[in-house]
Design a protein that fits this description.
Strand order of the largest sheet: 1-2-3
Number of domains: 2
Low-confidence stretches: none
Strand content: 15-25%
Mean pLDDT: 94
Shape: elongated
Distance between the termini: 38 Å
Structural class: alpha+beta
Number of helices: 5
Radius of gyration: 21 Å
């Protein structure tokens, strides 16, 4: 996803990042190196060398840092980005399980009732047009159980 514009908000201590999906904030404290009162931000802009998919900033000390749009989307828990991240993780797991499986790829394809081309698209980590359902079907054919764990922010169960 391309970044349209980025601007500093020193009052909130965040970068305000504008994309086609809207405006996102990214705290200075998450950037490396982080801008501070002792080393303030002096310049920020969308970086063409990152394909406009990130921005670069410079501090008064001369230190520079860059932030990719994926970091901004992950920080903001963007639903589309989080879906793609889930697909990516499931795809990597399915690919490992296929490699470890005693079943041949032909047998897996038969059990999925799909074509070889569709099977290989399922295993392609750069393909985000597949569905979570089909990946779950594949993992089921491989005799895997998939549990979805929902946790509150911070990753700990309540009361623990």
């Amino acid at each position: 996803m391309k970044i349209k514009n980025v601007s500093p908000n020193n009052h909130k201590r965040v970068f305000e990042v504008s994309t086609r999906q809207g405006l996102f904030s990214f705290p200075y404290s998450k950037a490396q190196p982080p801008p501070s009162g002792r080393d303030p931000l002096v310049a920020v802009g969308v970086d063409d060398e990152l394909g406009r998919e990130g921005f670069t900033f410079r501090l008064a000390s001369g230190l520079e840092g860059s932030v990719h749009v994926d970091e901004v989307l992950e920080y903001n828990r963007d639903p589309g980005y989080m879906r793609d991240l889930l697909l990516y993780k499931l795809t990597l797991e399915a690919s490992e399980r296929v490699d470890e499986s005693h079943l041949s790829k032909r047998e897996i394809i038969r059990r999925l009732s799909t074509s070889p081309a569709q099977f290989y698209r399922l295993l392609d980590p750069t393909n985000y047009r597949k569905s979570v359902d089909r990946l779950l079907d594949l993992l089921s054919v491989l005799d895997c159980e998939v549990d979805l764990v929902v946790q509150p922010p911070g990753g700990r169960d309540r009361g623990a």
